[in-house]
Amino acid sequence: MIDLFIIKVGGNVIDNPELLQTFLEKFAAIPGKKILIHGGGKIATRIGDKLGIESKYVDGRRITDADTIDVVTMVYGGLVNKQLVAKLQANGCNAIGLTGADANIIPAVKRPVKEIDYGFVGDIRTEILHTGPLKALLDTGITPVFAPLTHDGNGQILNTNADTIASSLAIALSQHYSVRLIYCFEKKGVLRDPADDESVINLINKEIYQQLLEEKILTDGILPKLQNAFGAIDNGVKEVLIGHADDVLSNTTPKVAGTLIC
């Protein structure tokens, strides 16, 4: 029996109004306790462009300089988060928008500069996540909706990977609930052939994962999700699933679609 669903929805779904509307209707229909974590990188890029703030990336990771942290705070924590909350309310889901700074739920540290200076990017302090406020919200029937932002405890907001936030919350809350962590995006699961949407790998354990790595089948985009998934499984999360946003409702039942991580 799953007591809590923690669901992360990708930025490509956020960018597609039709996909997003369908996803939110199905998310709202999920019975019981649930948490939503969202991205929104392309929207931040578009608004940054309008403001004359160039987006910079290294290996697909955003460099969050002083101007950019202001943009992502406005876009992730404001525009995207509150639009999602309003749409969920319209679908009968009593949601509340949060960042990691709210109620001190997700403390983080600014990523140290090594070969690359990522700027105001946060690495979560998993040992001191504060789940009490989340548990109180969940137990009163309120659905938290998290923007991918954390804080350093000294007044600085930090940009943090949404997949990692989802995994960290799932691990911390597995002390109180039986948790299924679901990563939703625009594909049907982990694909053996990225060009073939039907080539879903239905089950990945550590042995299969190593084989896929050796065969170089896994793309860069899916690797962080798998790394976070196995990190969650190793630390108390009951189940992790990677699948299409359209399947989010069915993926909260025993009849799942997509890729099950175990």
Automatic annotation (TrEMBL):
Site (Transition state stabilizer): K8, K225
Catalytic reactions of this protein: N-acetyl-L-glutamate + ATP = N-acetyl-L-glutamyl 5-phosphate + ADP
EC numbers on record: 2.7.2.8
Keywords, comma-separated and alphabetical: Amino-acid biosynthesis, Arginine biosynthesis, ATP-binding, Cytoplasm, Kinase, Nucleotide-binding, Transferase
The keyword Acetylation is assigned to this record: no
UniProt cross-references to Pfam families, sorted A to Z: AA_kinase
Transmembrane domains' residue ranges: none
MF term (GO), any: acetylglutamate kinase activity
Recorded metabolic or biological pathway in which this protein acts: Amino-acid biosynthesis; L-arginine biosynthesis; N(2)-acetyl-L-ornithine from L-glutamate: step 2/4
Annotated ranges, domain Aspartate/glutamate/uridylate kinase: 4-243
GO BP term, pick one: L-arginine biosynthetic process via ornithine
Main EC class the enzyme belongs to: transferase
Superkingdom classification of source: Bacteria
Intracellular or extracellular location(s): Cytoplasm
GO cellular component labels: cytoplasm
Binding site for substrate: G40, G41, R62, N159
Biological function: Catalyzes the ATP-dependent phosphorylation of N-acetyl-L-glutamate.
Family named by the database record: Belongs to the acetylglutamate kinase family. ArgB subfamily.
NCBIfam families per the UniProt record, alphabetical: argB (TIGR00761)
Protein name: Acetylglutamate kinase
Species: Chitinophaga ginsengisegetis
